[in-house]
Write a sequence for this structure.
């Protein structure tokens, strides 16, 4: 209570409840309280992402990096052996879109894709239109 204003109520930290000194618009007593309160708020406000979503995103990123590395080494569409992709941990079960043409079915991870050819060969292509949602 202030001797100058009998109705004055001191401001309190929104996280720990300690009395605040200084600016009137101050919400937290220190950085630790501010960080803890914000982490708590963000954690409860956002949707919990199940573990399998993070695992699938990791697989898609790895597939994308492998395809991108191969396509940038060769300018344009290129053909590689299926087992060379498997050795690099490429996972053929995960992709973001499918494009069926008269020449075959292409599986895309964002804008980089592949098509299976005879004799365990894989043709790798790039199609920027496949990355659009």
């Amino acid at each position: 209570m202030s001797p100058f204003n009998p109705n004055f109520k001191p401001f309190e930290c929104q996280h720990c409840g300690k009395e605040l000194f200084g600016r009137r618009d101050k919400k937290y007593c220190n950085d630790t309280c501010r960080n803890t309160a914000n982490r708590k708020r963000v954690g409860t406000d956002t949707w919990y992402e199940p573990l399998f979503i993070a695992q699938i995103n990791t697989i898609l990123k790895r597939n994308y990096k492998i395809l991108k590395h191969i396509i940038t080494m060769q300018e344009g569409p290129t053909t590689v052996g299926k087992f060379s992709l498997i050795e690099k941990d490429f996972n053929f079960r995960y992709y973001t879109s499918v494009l069926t043409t008269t020449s075959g079915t292409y599986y895309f991870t964002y804008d980089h894709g592949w098509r299976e050819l005879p004799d365990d060969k894989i043709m790798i292509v790039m199609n920027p239109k496949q990355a659009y949602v």
